[in-house]
Amino acid sequence: MTAAAAAAPRADWSARHLAALLVANIALAIGPWSVRLADSGPIAAAFWRLALAWPLLLGFALASRQPLTGFSRPIWLAICGAGIAFAVDLASWHIGIGHTRLGNATLFGNSGSLIVMVWGLVALRRAPNRFEWAALASACAGSAILFGRSIELGAGTLAGDLFCLFAGFMYAFYIILLQGARAGLGSWALLVWSSAIGAPVLLGFALLQGEPVWPHVWWPLLTLALGSQIIGQGLLVYALRHFAPLVIGLVLLMQPAVAVLAGWFAFNEALTGWDVLGMVLVAAALVIARAGERA
Asked: Residue 3 and residue 20: Cα distance in Å, rounded?
């Protein structure tokens, strides 16, 4: 899942922009694997993801001379609300990762683009066009298949899917809250403040749940912080503005594919033909939703 949204995309990409986009999606797809391997609690792992990455994010923001203060009160309120939404997003997603398959977690966790599309239709008070109907139909059909397969595997797996889907809703809420503030907020500054606000919220959640916070083994958390929050988010910040939404949506398909391979390799998560069909339908919905985006 990403904490940065694309600015108005341009078709001026080069090989290094494409490489950055591909590496970013691979790094983000490996994030759930790191969450599974961490010996802290899942919410505590989300806290460390933000806390360990924060000094580097601050350094990048200062180096790029992005303003970190001096915002108006409405922008500060939007930033605070978005930081809390981002924390709830990560907490719910990390809980879901522990209960469902990595492919499902990645797909439902990335459902924010589709949810924002639906919110846009409601805000504009208009009916969906044919592409949006196709995205909705594909998402509903694919989700029904995946939820059905999760029910067959057990109630815990279904609960994991629902936690990850709720994370997608919270990420959409995060994007919506920042729509007005994004013009005056640099990408690194946005990550600095969303992390600074979200980290203590996540630590509070972890302590309330009685989770182990201090890990015995640090490398999974360091991999999560550097891979997801620095390499993944940072390369997306660099690359997204250079691509059309359709290209972004197609490359987004790498995340569930890599997550499925990681689940099979590390956790022996087998897939049936129905699982593949459900994932393809949900992934197609995300691509269609991305393709329908407008600057």
From this structure: 16
- Give the whole-angstrom CA distance, residue 96 versus residue 167: 9
d(CA 47, CA 171): 16
Q: What is the pLDDT of residues 92-101, one digit of tens each?
A: 999 999 998 8
Half-sphere exposure of 87 (CA within 13 A, CB side): 24
**Cα 269 from Cα 101, distance rounded (Å):** 7
Q: Is the dihedral of CA 112, 157, 276, 147 positive or negative?
A: negative
Single out the residue of 204, 194, 243 nearest to residue 1, CA to CA. Answer: 194
Distance CA 161, CA 167 (A): 10
The CA dihedral of 101, 107, 109, 111, to the nearest 10 degrees, is -150
Looking at the chain, list the stretches that DSSP marks H as alpha helix, in order from N- to C-terminal side.
Answer: 15-37, 42-63, 73-97, 102-109, 112-124, 130-153, 155-177, 187-208, 219-224, 233-239, 245-252, 254-267, 273-291
For 199-211, write each residue's pLDDT tens digit.
Answer: 999 999 999 999 9
CB 111 within 8 A of CB 118: no
pTM: 0.82
